[in-house]
Recover the amino acids of this structure.
């Protein structure tokens, strides 16, 4: 059985979204539990990818391909895991809505963070770039997300992060969400000044922050 | 103009592809394949490549990528393909000389060659850095007053009268117009009213850019940016900048910001994307000259080994295969008031100069903070001119840069970076001179590098 899990892990590391689906199906047919496939096949693969990216051995395409492989595998596992999660609340992974705020069309930083969060096992809903503030909040409401993650590279787009937090207040929703902010010019002091719940210097710190905000670390 | 309108048509009729598939299946996959096909490799200890075969292969791979991929229009999610004939025409018609500014202050940029007899020109300013309005003029003056600076650029106004400027909102128009007023005032005040500018840096969307196309603000002899998005993408907002310049007549500087460690993978793939970006921007950005601004995926700075290699490979690739006017900018990790800023600037100035580029800088502290001043721009020009005067070879330049890297490379792993101090703490705002401490650091590094034989 370990052989299945090793192959699944390796397929994630190689960003092979075709093989990973094949191996997951084979493992399920052989009687492997969906939870074990997730925790001992997919997640270790995601961890290896994250570490290699952090160490400079892997680059952005490797991260994106691994994210793609994870997504493909999760399409198969999700319904099976949902049944298990219904019985055990601790199995549910938090939803994170992520977007580059309106007027900012830079996506690389946001993509890296989204891929790393997905690799960490979160259910990431990526709304893309230049996203209107109300659309971000509406999607968070619709998907029952726990975290809203905002990205802005441009200094003159950063005020929109504050506007979103103000909008959450105005709509009476601020207490429902943890708001993470990030981008080249975002500092911890600035994040605090706009009432955000935190920021990270890079994607690795973003994952740590998400874990902390969700009480997982 | 008719040709450009035809390109706009292609944005509506080209092949549809999702952005994610463009990134992964087109750009990343093609970069990976071409790096393998042309056997492109880099060496951490050879930040200035000297293998002519490698340099030419980088150019060929970039050309192949441009022909094969074209450019992605994010506004319509379609590919604008460019024919071989168009690409060759674009390369053939790249300006070989370009006058910026007017009257006695005008300068002629030219397509540099490796070992060129003519010196590089210098753009002084801190492009991208958010500069408070309270000392924006003084900051710009600190660069404009430097005799070695040929052309002026600047940071970004992010507040007007205490109000935050938001991209795409009315205040962006006010901010960009005010930026130009400050620049023109600064040029008059230092007695160089005709100096050419690369400006409208406060215009993040197209709004501000359109609002300053006026002879009293951004003149026809000045330039503005027409950016490409990462990687090999553009949108209608940026195409609007190109269209407006065509009608008005100002000079276009293409700005691809290739991310080293991004979709191209390591330095070789990133250099290939950068070459392809310049080639397509001849057509889609209507580029008169190119800004060479690769950045590091984690450290941002242009002074990392990886980015220095990309700058040198791309600069040399064009100089050898299709000479173009290329301005390589300097974005050091460190900020004003730190000794490392001076080492980083020196390393970048040497690389940019020997790699056939003109030079712009410095976007100190990664261009993230107002921690920049005219003193490091003076230093940038002094070091570049010294290496040019001494006719140092690529190999000698590499040796110098490795020595400098030893002095500053620690800043990339330093907790919190090495931001230094804001402009108003390193310059006296009345006399417009560096503070005693900042001047002393500059003198110390200058003396040190003079003793080591780098500068005169």
């Amino acid at each position: 059985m370990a052989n299945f899990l090793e192959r699944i892990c390796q397929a994630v590391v190689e960003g092979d979204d075709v093989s990973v689906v094949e191996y997951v199906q084979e493992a399920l047919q052989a009687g492997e539990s969906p939870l074990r496939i997730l925790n001992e096949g997919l997640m270790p693969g995601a961890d290896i990818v994250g570490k290699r990216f952090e160490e400079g051995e892997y680059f952005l395409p490797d991260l994106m391909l691994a994210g793609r492989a994870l997504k493909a595998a999760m399409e198969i596992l999700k319904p099976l895991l949902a049944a298990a999660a219904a019985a055990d609340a601790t199995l549910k992974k938090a939803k994170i809505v992520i977007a580059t705020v309106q007027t900012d069309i830079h996506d690389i930083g946001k993509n890296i963070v989204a891929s790393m969060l997905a690799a960490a096992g979160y259910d990431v809903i990526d709304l893309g770039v230049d996203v209107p503030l109300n659309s971000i909040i509406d999607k968070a409401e619709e998907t029952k997300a726990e975290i809203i993650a905002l990205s802005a590279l441009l200094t003159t787009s950063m005020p929109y992060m504050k506007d979103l937090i103000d909008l959450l207040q105005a709509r009476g929703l601020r207490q429902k969400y943890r708001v993470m902010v990030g981008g080249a010019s975002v500092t911890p002091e600035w994040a605090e000044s706009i009432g955000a719940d935190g920021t990270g210097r890079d994607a690795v710190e973003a994952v740590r922050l998400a874990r902390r905000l969700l009480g997982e670390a | 103009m008719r040709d450009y309108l035809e390109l706009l048509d292609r944005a509506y009729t080209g092949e549809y592809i999702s952005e994610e598939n463009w990134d992964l299946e087109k750009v990343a996959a093609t970069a990976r394949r071409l790096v393998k096909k042309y056997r492109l490799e880099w060496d951490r200890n050879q930040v200035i490549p000297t293998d002519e075969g490698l340099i030419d292969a980088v150019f060929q791979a970039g050309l192949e990528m441009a022909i094969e991929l074209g450019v992605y229009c994010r506004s319509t999610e379609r590919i604008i393909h460019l024919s071989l004939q168009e690409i060759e025409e674009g390369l053939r018609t790249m300006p070989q000389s370009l006058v910026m500014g007017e009257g006695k202050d005008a300068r002629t940029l030219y397509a540099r060659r490796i070992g060129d007899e003519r010196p590089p020109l210098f753009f002084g300013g801190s492009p991208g850095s958010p500069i408070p309005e309270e000392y924006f003029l003084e900051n710009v003056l600190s660069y404009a007053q430097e005799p070695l600076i040929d052309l002026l650029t600047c940071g970004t106004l992010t507040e007007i009268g205490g109000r935050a400027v938001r991209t795409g909102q009315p205040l962006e128009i006010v901010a960009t117009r005010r930026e130009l007023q400050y620049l023109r005032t600064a040029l008059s005040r230092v007695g160089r009213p005709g100096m050419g500018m690369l400006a409208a840096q406060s215009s993040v969307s197209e709004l501000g850019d359109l609002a300053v196309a006026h002879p009293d603000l951004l003149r026809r002899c000045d330039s503005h940016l027409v950016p490409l998005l990462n990687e090999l993408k553009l949108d209608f907002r940026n195409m609007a900048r190109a269209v407006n310049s065509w009608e008005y007549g100002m000079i276009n500087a293409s700005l691809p910001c290739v991310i080293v460690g991004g979709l191209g993978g390591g330095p070789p793939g990133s250099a290939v994307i950068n070459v392809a970006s310049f080639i397509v921007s001849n057509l889609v950005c209507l580029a008169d000259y190119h800004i060479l601004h690769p950045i590091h995926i984690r450290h941002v700075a242009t002074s990392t080994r990886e980015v220095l290699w990309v700058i040198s490979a791309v600069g040399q690739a064009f100089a050898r295969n299709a000479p173009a006017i290329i301005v390589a900018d300097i974005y050091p990790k460190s900020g004003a008031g730190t000794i490392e800023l001076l080492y980083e600037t020196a390393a970048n100035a040497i690389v940019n100069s020997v790699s056939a580029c003109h030079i712009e800088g410095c976007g100190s502290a990664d261009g993230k903070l107002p921690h920049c001043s005219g003193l490091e721009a003076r230093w940038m020009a002094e070091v570049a001119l010294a290496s040019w005067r001494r006719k140092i070879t690529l190999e000698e330049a590499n040796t110098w840069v490795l020595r400098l890297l030893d002095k500053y490379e620690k800043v990339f792993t330093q907790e919190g970076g090495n931001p230094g101090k804001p402009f108003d703490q390193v310059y006296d705002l009345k006399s417009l001179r560096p503070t005693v401490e900042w001047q002393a650091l500059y003198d110390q590094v200058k003396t040190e590098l003079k003793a080591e034989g780098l500068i005169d």
In short: Chain A has two domains: 2-90, 93-213.
